[in-house]
Amino acid sequence: MKHISIRIFALLSILLLSTDVYCQSSGGSSNYLIWSLVVVGFIILIGAIISLSDNLLNVEASKQGLDTAEGDYGVFPSLSNLFAGKVPAFASKATYHKLSKGFTINLLGEATEVDHGRSAQRFAISPKDFIEMSPIPKVEVEVGQEVKAGDVIFFDKKRPEIKYVSPVSGEVIEINRAEKRSIDTIVILADKEVSYTQHEVPSINESSREDLVSYLAASGGWTMINQRPFDIVPALSNLPTNIFISTFDSAPLAPNYEGLAADNKLAIQNAINTLNRLTEGKVYFGLDAKAENAANSVFTDFDNVEVHWFAGQHPYGNVGVQIHHIAPIANGTNVWTLNVNDLITLGHLMTSGEYRTERHVVLAGAGMESNAIVKTYQGAHIGDLTKGLVKEGSRVISGNVLTGKQVTEDNFLRFRDSQITAITEGDSYELFGWLLPLVPRPSLSRTFPAFLMPNFQFEGETNMHGEGRAFVVTGQYESVLPMDIYPQHLMKAIMAGDFEKMEGLGINELSEEDLALCEFVCTSKQPLQSILRDGLEMMREQL
User: Fold this and answer.
1) Which residues fall within 8 angstroms of residue 227, CB to CB, at 6 or more apart?
2) Tell me: the pLDDT tens digits for 279-301?
3) pTM higher than 0.90 for the full model?
4) Nearest to 412 by CA among 402, 420, 400
5) What does the alpha-carbon distance between residue 246 and residue 340 come to, in Å, rounded to a whole number?
6) In Å, what is the CA distance from 124 to each residue of 146, 169, 174?
């Protein structure tokens, strides 16, 4: 281990220096020199044995599923564990993870207040938001048709049992097509008061697993579930090892789910109970130990769920990072994940039989005239929500600045998004910008004085400050990814199409959001998220 090697090197340096001084003072006696070399050799041998034992213990701990990325199961504890702070009192009754790697990007434009005057009139659902979906699914509605929230809109011809349903009630006004007549979006003009299709709710405890699965597939609830690896809607026959829900998002300007969860406690509990029936493993909650109201978090009030607290910097809120530290995905297995919004929607289906997709969408970023939280529904029209807010020369993003998709105000929120971010469109060059770092910007490099101002909020922009370069080893990725994975080696294995190395290097544990920060700090300006998706698709095609 690194800390043992450092100790051995320091000890040897002291011994060699003292030996040299002593020999000089005694006239260079060869006996003393020989004995000193023997002692040094003995120390090297003992150090090598300890170092090897330390490594072997950590390897064995990793094989047993223990968290070697966070803990230390070697001969000696690491310095970071020796001087780690105390576990907060509110987290003492659950497992506490303090992650040392990561990088938090503080941006201007946080939304804190609800704007009750804003709402959307149009909503859409897009087949393109679902990986593995056929480009031309079977559409069950026509333009001019009236639908209720929960009515079937389309289904994949390869898996017709899984239904994709309307987020609101209203009139279908557009069925937009893209290249090769693929379905782009199906747009609904919403009613002022949303009405819902009523489903007959099966008993969570008395119904069979097959009955629960069939109900969720027919009502739209199954589409709330995300399978890892590959980030796809799972097959109905799929049995997950465990199910994970991250109750917070550590990405820049991300929404806070506490308020929405407080209003939907019964739905969340019923969702948890249902998910427990769908897995032979456990349902896990990842909670934010750094939040101001962590001690009073609403997410600690639920039964039948195992709670794990996380502290650190982004991406500690990513469900993939939490999975890695709780129960990593083994080769040949899979897990399910849900975000809080999807958990609530599934819970309402198991409570009232209604497909409810209420969202608290944040309008964030310095590219907005003002920032706000809007209460709306899944797939809301971006222009309706941001009307008059986006500054000229700003880029609009569905999602956050690291993983979001560039959109226009004529587009709609993606299926799982509850954030719209606007930042300055950067298309300029700074003369000697890296030599004269006068403009403050978030950067992992200490060339910029930003590290001296940990709470400073930056005005985000899209400028890359460089172009694509040679893909060289820098160690930057490992410094911001709190997982026991070597991202750069994995990326090169993907680019080489080496399936065995891809699997061995942990591709099944990753999703694009997990590498987004690596892409942000990348000196080589490589599109890591795109490369990872190519690799995941290559792996999926081999199944």
Assistant:
1) 233, 234, 238, 240, 334, 335, 336
2) 999 999 999 999 988 989 999 99
3) no
4) 420
5) 7
6) 14, 11, 9
